Amino acid sequence: MAHAPFFSIIVPVYNQQQGISKTLQSLVGQTFNNLEIIIINDGSTDDSLAICEAFASTDPRIRIVNKPNEGLPFARKSGLETAKGEYIHNLDGGDYVEHDAYECLSKAIIEGGNPDILVFRFKYVTTSGKDLPSKPYPATIRTTEDMMRHILTTMQYNSVWQYVYRRDLSDNIAFCKDLTLKEDLYYTIQLLNAADSLSIINDVLYCYVVDDASMANSKFTLRSLESLEKADALVEEFLRKNNMEQSFDYEILAMRLQSYALAVLGGLTWLIKDKKPEFDKAFKKYPCLKKTGEIRRIYKLLKAQEVGLLSPIIAYYKMKGKIRQ
């Protein structure tokens, strides 16, 4: 390409031979052409690389970076080191975008006065053929700080692929390859803090593919919990270094409790008793946390524990699929 591309699309790929063709087809078929597609082959051992090479042989906008497997955060890091575009978008291998996604984004950037970061809606697409669009963004979110507070409190909108951002915002992003869950949270909070302007697009542009069988069979483990706690600690340390710890006290507590709620609903029900003192302390300090996100379900379980009904309530939740077996 003679000129720098407007968008750099970073696509990490690891053993995704089943879905990567649809991902790449959605990119090469875009109505907006001024983009580069950077595929990070993160040590795939299946036919993913061959599929990517076939696409690259017919489209000069595609570049492939081969590297040893180090996980999603470092795959994205490699993509950033390669990117030349003015704006960055991270598209996870296996997912795809609407055919006019980058045309919509380019128009929004021009009409919005070149904002630092843009966020857009998405839809869940299941392998059984169902799709569910995400809800419009709350009108209360107007600034990057508003978005940071909302993310930490609710764990909504924390996925990196929901954002397009100026490339220079990533100059000081720190990565941690030990994270297997919540890795996007650490990345997104750093991005939002570095940005001065935010543009919200209520169009559905991204398709997040959910494997029904994988979701049903996935198990929440102690390693999963450790990743959640590690990500929370990294975010808290980041806020502390930027002198934001006190002003984000409520959000930090909510973030921790949301992680424990996710772990409990994922099957680690022993955490209800183990973390009860932490929940009680947080509820005393901020009573409204009882009604926040998934924390409200844990509050109900804690009340059930007080009257000796925890075990039957957990059994009922498992039967209904609200807690994984």
Automatic annotation (TrEMBL):
Uppermost EC category: transferase
Source species, domain of life: Bacteria
Keywords attached to this entry: Glycosyltransferase, Transferase
Glycosyltransferase 2-like domain residues: 8-170
Sample GO molecular function, one term: hexosyltransferase activity
Pfam families: Glycos_transf_2
Transcription regulation is among the record's keywords: no
Keyword Lipid biosynthesis listed: no
This enzyme's EC code(s): 2.4.-.-
Protein name: Glycosyltransferase
Origin species: Candidatus Avibacteroides avistercoris
